[in-house]
Amino acid sequence: DIQMTQSPSSVSASVGDRVTITCRASQGVSSWLAWYQQKPGKAPNLLIYAASRLQSGVPSRFSGSGSGTAFTLTITSLQPEDFATYYCQQANSFPFTFGPGTRVDV
Amino acid sequence: EVQLLESGGGLVQRGGSLRLSCTASGFTFSSFAMSWVRQAPGKGLEWVSTINPTDRTTYYADSVKGRFTISRDKSKDTLFLQMNSLRADDTAVYYCTKEISSCATISCNNYYYYAMDVWGQGTTVTVSS
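ok -> structure tokens follow
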């Protein structure tokens, strides 16, 4: 199985900050990598797929990059509604696996 | 509006069974792969199972293989997860999801999967020991 790790596990930030979250895969997943945002008590929401494709309706301050085993999610100019937990997920092969999550808070 | 609505969760004793349902609307349900993802209390996301668009292939996490069965009724736009031999560590919120996928071959014998672009609100399963 492909193991996913994320760093940091949590980050404290302020409105307007630039936030970068890293996701690493234990083996290459090409560009089969997605990012999700989850707020407390809510279902996750897809932000990025295929490593860098912005999902329809997602603000352009979110961007993704990387391929192979190392990926990043960047939020430029953090907004109040962006405080949440972010997960990466590999879709290269079954079983699909998620990273442990990165909590972004104040 | 594209929507997924889960039902069927509840409290069940260890070793018992439950059948989760997920009713889809707003898209052509029969054309898409579908998955179940769960989240234990205070924990991260765990993929559980996927059924491909043709229903010919299903995939399971090792933790549920042999106990859970994914299926769907395309005439009712409904996805199911039959859960047997439930254990305490199956306690979680279960989400129904729609997959972004595309054919990997001309014959569509295999698919590429990209991400889960639509999620239901989740249904809670609690297994008591």
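The radius of gyration of chain B is 14 Å.
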